[in-house]
């Protein structure tokens, strides 16, 4: 199955139609198999898929839209992840009448770029800006942003650097500011980077959902190495983000107290300082991958996400799109 799926994914990655948020596509056989394999064949939705280019890199973008969406959620995944690993939250959001835009970060999933790497964290932000520009040009408000881990860091970076942003609601789940064992990670990077260009990845138990963990280990879109270029970009970004001023925009943060991937205690202190209006929610017994946790934890996370989106979106009923398919 893995070899067959590799061939299917290669075919899907050659898809070159520009992303169009107003007109759904008719998926070919390869795309249909991709959607089925990753659980993205969401019922009762219109499917959009296409590419855009950022920093001369091909970015694969998709959107899942219910018949009468109440708003748009821009969803960003974490490091080593891709759109296919967010199928649970995508299905939940579309079921509750939100259209969902999700794209594979460069070096991830079906997007181009060096595997699991980026030269500068600002490149992530530039890609985000391009997606936002298309979204706001083609779709009506309200707009919401949800980012997991590195995806959360990208959104946080964007908000701190922009005086204005289009999002009614911003939610970060286990956001990355510093990774776990940060000082040790930095020391290892400075010690080893003159001699090697990366290290082998260790698959962590970042969820209590064993089925999810087993799936990730077999996932053909996973990468086995962590390039030191990505560590360098993270270290530089971490230094620059300290120098950014505060934002008084409200954001919500959901954090598991068994997270062994990020230095969450430091991260929450940092976010309280940078976002005085941050709304922080601790999720007991939850690990890092909050959207792929075991069922009882995942239900609590999704319920919280819905309350945040719905509570804010109700203020914008007059802007809702009536019968808009894209």
TrEMBL record:
<dbReference type="Pfam" id="PF12146">
    <property type="entry name" value="Hydrolase_4"/>
</dbReference>
<feature type="domain" description="Serine aminopeptidase S33">
    <location>
        <begin position="68"/>
        <end position="295"/>
    </location>
</feature>
<dbReference type="InterPro" id="IPR051044">
    <property type="entry name" value="MAG_DAG_Lipase"/>
</dbReference>
<dbReference type="InterPro" id="IPR029058">
    <property type="entry name" value="AB_hydrolase_fold"/>
</dbReference>
<protein>
    <recommendedName>
        <fullName>Serine aminopeptidase S33 domain-containing protein</fullName>
    </recommendedName>
</protein>
<dbReference type="InterPro" id="IPR022742">
    <property type="entry name" value="Hydrolase_4"/>
</dbReference>
